[in-house]
Write a structure and sequence with these properties.
The complex is a heterodimer of chains A (312) and B (478). Chain A is built from 12 helices and 13 strands. In chain A, the strands form 3 sheets. In chain A, strands 5-6-7-3-8-9 form a 6-stranded mixed sheet, with helices on both faces. Chain A has a 4-stranded antiparallel sheet with strand order 11-12-10-13. In chain A, strands 2-1-4 form a 3-stranded antiparallel sheet, covered by helices on one side. Chain A starts with a strand and ends in a 5-residue tail after the last helix. Chain B is mostly helical. Chain B has 19 helices and 4 strands. In chain B, strands 2-1-3-4 form a 4-stranded mixed sheet, sandwiched between helices. In chain B, helix 4 runs antiparallel to helix 5, helix 9 crosses helix 12 and helix 9 packs antiparallel against helix 17. The C terminus of chain B is likely disordered. Classes of the chains: A alpha/beta (312), B mainly alpha (478). At the A-B interface, helix 1, strand 5, helix 3 and helix 5 of A face helix 1 and helix 10 of B.
Amino acid sequence: MNAALEAEGLVKRYGARTAVQDLSFEVPRGAIYGVLGPNGAGKSSTLRMLVGVLKPSAGRIAILGGPITRASLKRVGYLPEERGLYRSMSARGAIAYLARLKGMPASIAFKRADALLDSHGLGAVRRKKIKTLSKGMAQKVQVLAAIAHEPDLIIFDEPFSGLDPVNQRVLEDTIRAQATAGRTILFSTHVMEHAERLCDRILLIAQGRKAFEGSVAQALALAPSAAVLETEGDFDLAAALASRGFNITPEGAEHGNRRWRVRLENGLGSRQLLSACVELGAPLSLFEPARASLHEAFVALVGDKIAVGGES
Amino acid sequence: MHPVLLVARRDYFAYVGAWGFWVSLVTAPLLLAALMFAPVLLARAEPPRVLAVVADRAEDAASVTEAFSARALADARGEIEAYLDTTAPAAVAAALAAFDAAPDRAAAIAAARAAVAASAPHALRAFPQPSPRYFIAAAPAPDINGLKPYLGGARTLPDGSALFGALYIRRGSAAPLIEYWSVNLQHDEPSEIARRAMRLEMQREALAAQGLDPAEADRLAEFSPAIVQFDPRPSAGEGQVTLRQRAPFFAAIALAFVLWSVVFSVANMLLSGVIEEKSNKILDTLLTSVTPLELLFGKLLGVAAVSATLFLFWGALGGGLLSMAASQMGESMLGQVASAFIDPRLIAAFGIGFVAGYLMYGAIFLALGSLCESIQEAQTLLGPVALVLAMPMLLIGPAMDNPNAPIIEAASWIPLFTPFLMLVRAPAGLAWTEIAGMGAMMLVTVVILLLLAARVFQAGIVNQLSMSSLFGRRARKG
């Protein structure tokens, strides 16, 4: 079997409320897989079911080719959304302890902890207690604790939250390095940019349901494309293009030129837009096709309100 | 290493590594000793309470004053006897004979001390210097109205001391009337001493009225039968109850107190440990490696090891002191109490009681902890729970008085009370079959409580069931 993780018809109910509804997806081995959605979309509930912390109300999960068992979970590394470590433990002690709980022998666990701390710039604080570390350092220690036992499948829940931009980049590098080492990585985020930069495939969730699953390119293709134009002087491009069926919105002025954004939809592409501008004698100083973002794709899939966190 | 052992090991070193643990380890025996000896030391440190006696008849004032002197003499004799009982039993008889032969209190104390110096010089180092409980001062005023400023604290006696109380012995046509004046309303012992003195005085007067010698009253008052207490049980041997037979009861009470303190201290560790893990948000991480049941057992095992460390330290300390006392003091009071701790029935009851009590209360506290989000929330929950859990200690008082009372026997079969009351009942002829029966009953209770606790624990830590959600608001998760 080629999938590192399979979920089929997952449902999670908390009393009368359904957090996850009929969710099915597959994570290929060796992939970096993103689970995206606004806050409250059901991402954490889904991930907690994947690592056996929560029992699904319905549905089936297979990790690394089999059901969730003690043995299969030993091959999984998990960073929960609500994270923390024993405050009075040292950084190396915390990493080694969690690795040992996963079955790693003590001597190897401590060596591995030291090596990881050294390679991530935390060698100097290896014997410091967690409570004396900065929040960012402690979070890095927890990430290292999740991968210390060299798991085949790594599941991170909102790993970038709470990190400054520099450490976000460091974490992105860590994720890429783990993928390069042949591990499968699944992470959730509500920040689409991380997924765009890292993921091979993504799962978009809204209100506990799957809105999309596929590659990032496939998702971007679903977003309406657009073009950014600038005209010289006070030429009114919106008025000129209105009769041609284009959806155009002004975006202010730049260096004395007026700036416009045109959504390319209803069969009208950039070629038709450029022809129309030439025909209308528009004094163009810039014509630039705009790359769609995952956020725009998500908005196109689920609507504006839900995309910003519509779940109650 | 098995995950249960890893969890236990981590918890053990987390507690043992905390400086508070070592402070408790060392201070607990000191505090216990202070609690035991503080009342005696405080009583000794207190200066005599100053009383004034005024009377319509000088003979009455003299009788009452004499009664207080006799009381001071008896107290001193008792204090010296109790001290020598524990330190130099062989010297008791000679010391008391010297005491009784002396003309007054100061001379009596000095004579007893001299006798001890001759036969047991090692006992001189802490030889008591008894201080009288009451001192009868010359009344600074002839009547109660004149004494009121002194009694109320507005004035002091010429030597600067405060007047604690005043006795006014009235004489009318009927029987004498004793008025006791004091602002210390709870303490009425002086009036009782005065009552006994005046009763003797009335007996003297009655004898004189019959034409008999009034001193006969004093001689008659000295008649007193000897009392010998017997235990009819075959196990009691000769049957006569001495300190040797009573000592196991003192030992049982002491062990019950220690057991109760340790069980609740370590159960509280479990409670705060779970809450710490909940507030540290570490449970989700742990739960991908250990099951909730393994976590629960790991925690129970870890804190049990902490308790074992406490007992080993205290046991070694106490055992060393007790065996030293038993070997050095032989038949003395302390020696007899010390050897009472080595009773197999008591040790069995303590061992079974600790294991069962720890597991029962540990399971309850762990379950409660898993439902609480903070120590504050746990404290509000523990208030009423603690009241219920304090009940065994409230029953220890009546159990000391009568360990075989029906209510104590019945309460000792309530599993949550059994560990403590079984211990208290052990010296009162608790059969081995009863100990086994109680052990079996607690075992069943432990299994039931652990199963229930595991379910609550799982619901609390995995599904985020909390006290608030139990009362209608479901925890929400994204």
